[in-house]
Amino acid sequence: MTASLLITGVSGYTGAEACRYFASKGYSVTGMVRKARESAEGVCYAACDLLCKEEMNRLIETQKPDYILHLAGDNHAGDSWQRPLGVLETNVNGTLNLMEAVRRYSPATRILVAGSMIDYDPCKMESPNHPYGVTKYLQTFTAKCWGHLYDMDIVIARPSNLIGPGDSSGICALLASKLVEMEHGPGKGKLEIHNLKSQRDFLDVRDVVRAYEILLLKGKSLQDYSIGSGVSRTLGEVAENLVKLTDAEVEVSHSLEEAEAPFLVDCSKMESLGWSPGITFQQSMKDILAYYRSRSC
Predict the structure, then answer these.
(1) Gene3D superfamilies recorded for this chain (predicted)?
(2) CA geometry: angle at 16 spanning 276 and 282, to 5°?
(3) SS3 content of the chain, % helix, strand, coil (to 5)
(4) Nearest-CA neighbor of 199 among 131, 257, 112?
(5) How many Cβ atoms are within 10 Å of 278's Cβ, its own excluded?
(6) Which of 17, 33, 13, 34 is nearest to 25 (CA)?
(7) What integer is the mean pLDDT of 185-204?
(8) For burial by CB atoms within 10 Å, which of 63, 71, 240, 254 has the most?
(9) Mean of all residue pLDDT scores within the chain
(10) pLDDT band at 38 (very low <50, low <70, confident <90, very high)
(11) Which residues share a beta bridge with 113?
(12) Residue 130 neighbours by CB under 8 Å, 6+ apart
């Protein structure tokens, strides 16, 4: 029997890749969107506003999916400084609306909630990093609480910085798109990076979607799983790798070079389930550039 999967946030970067992947694997995929659209590429779209309890209840009561991959939310740390309450409402209240709908109408559904590696963990950090980090911590915290309180099947994923082809607002995509503009420009261009020594763990979005499937099938309920490459890279290294892949004349400028501790991700729990990254950082860089070059034609 074909497993049914509801994916929230399908208009986003990871959501679009998740739809392609799970449809290709034979799942019966429903993509939750705000405005109705026609089905395409093996995905049936359902219009539903995550912040509307009535719409969320109707969707879950109708669908009763085997699995839910919850990717919807506000995922830009920078924007969260300007509109913290809006980000909080979407990431926390929206998730609770989903939890409540499943609790009431489809309690057997397994839910995978995609949190963030850069959330604010009060047990490890003295002060919050940004409003976004607070909202992502509260999102996964409340989801796990609902799982414990109401005996729901909920798994938490905590991915690192995602890269790869597709429409992304991440640093790698921003740098790659600027490089492609320079390739068509009249002269020397400039890449501006605030801190060349800022550290990140970068993972290809295609690898994280594979990890999500494994967690839906094998993850332990009410457990957290960190997902990353296990390699910490500086933004200077990112820029260097991208510049090597272009013939454009590029100058890399920066405001400071302030050393940061390596951003280390423990992926041992994912490895115990048989997952490991399959796409190299260099291949991801090539694919990002290829994507933006294809859009510029």
Answers:
(1) NAD(P)-binding Rossmann-like Domain, UDP-galactose 4-epimerase, domain 1
(2) 45
(3) 40, 20, 35
(4) 257
(5) 10
(6) 17
(7) 90
(8) 71
(9) 94
(10) confident
(11) 70, 156
(12) 77, 78, 80, 81
Evaluate whether 199 touches 262 at the Cβ level (below 8 Å): yes
120 has pLDDT over 80: no
Q: Evaluate if residue 80 carries a pLDDT over 80.
A: no
Q: Dihedral of CA 12/13/19/22: which sign?
A: negative
Q: Where are the alpha helices (DSSP H) in the chain?
A: 13-24, 53-63, 77-80, 84-88, 94-105, 131-150, 171-183, 205-218, 235-244, 268-271, 281-296
- Non-local CB neighbours of 149 within 8 Å, separated by 6+ positions: none
* Residue 120, amino acid: Y
Whether residue 277 has pLDDT greater than 90: yes
In the numeric block, the tokens 């699995």 are attached to 67
Q: Are 163 and 173 in contact (CB under 8 A)?
A: yes
Global pTM value: 0.95
Q: Which amino acid is at 57?
A: N
Predicted pLDDT at 1 = 77
**Amino acid identity, residue 297?**
C
Domains of the chain (ranges, CATH numbers) = 4-159 (3.40.50.720), 171-200+231-265+276-296 (3.90.25.10)
Other CB atoms within 10 A of residue 76 CB: 14
Q: What is the pLDDT of residue 39?
A: 84
Pairing of strands 199-204, 232-234: antiparallel
Query: pLDDT above 90 covers what percent of the chain?
Result: 79
Burial class (CB within 10 angstroms; exposed 0-12, middle 13-18, buried 19+) of 82: exposed
